[in-house]
Amino acid sequence: MLVLEKADVLSVIKWPYVDSMKVVQPDWIKEMFTAITPYYGQLRIGLGTLRDFYLPYVLLVISDGEFQRVQIEKINCTHCQSPWLSANPAIWDLYISVPNKDEAWEVALSRTQVKCPHCGQDPGRRSIWLGRILEAG
Questions:
Q1: Cα–Cα separations (whole angstroms), residue 81 to 85, 121, 122, 125, 128
Q2: Distance between CA atoms of 30 and 92, rounded to whole angstroms?
C-alpha cells in the first residue's frame, strides 16, 4: 500500500501512473481528494496493487503508520439530521487487494464506532470517524 502526500495525489490526478504502473480511477481520486482535503491529516489517499495496476482507496489514519481503508459517505444523523462525512470500514470491496481479506475484515469490524458529535447518538450508519461537511467557497 502506498500512502500519498498531497503533492503525490495532484500528480496522480494529472498523470495516472506511479513507477510506470497505471493508477485507475483518477476522476474518483480527484473527487475524493476534493472532499477530504480539509481533513488530509486524518484521511489520506492510498494505492493498493491489484494485478498490474494501482487501485485507489481512502485511508483513515489510526496511528503513526497504521491506516484503515474506509469508504467516505455523506450521511445525516438519523436522530438530529446533522450532516457529516462518514468513514465506513465495513465495505467488503475495500479489501479486494489485501492478501488476508478475512483478517482485514475482522479488524475493520472491530474498530470502535463513533457517535454523532452534535447529539451523541448513533448516527445510523457504521462510522469510525465523522467530519463536518465543509462547503466550497
A1: 13, 11, 12, 12, 18
A2: 23
The pTM assigned to this predicted structure is 0.92
Cell of 6: 498531497
Q: What is the pLDDT of residues 30-72, one digit of tens each?
A: 999 999 999 999 999 999 999 999 999 999 999 988 999 999 9
What are the phi and psi torsion angles at 97 (to 5°)?
-105, 10
| Domains held by the chain: number | 1
Instruction: Please spell the DSSP secondary structure of 93-119, one letter per residue.
Output: GGGTT-TTHHHHHHHHHHSPPPPPTTT
The grid coordinates of residue 86 equal: 462518514
Q: Tell me the residue range of the domain where 54 lies.
A: 2-132
The C-alpha cell at 128 is 469510525
Question: Would residue 31 count as lying in a domain?
Answer: yes
Residue 137 lies in a domain: no
Torsion of CA 24, 84, 35, 52, to 10 degrees: -10
DSSP β-ladder status, 83-88 and 129-132: antiparallel
Which residue in 82, 71, 79 sits closest to 129, CA to CA? 71
| d(C-alpha 1, C-alpha 7), whole Å | 17
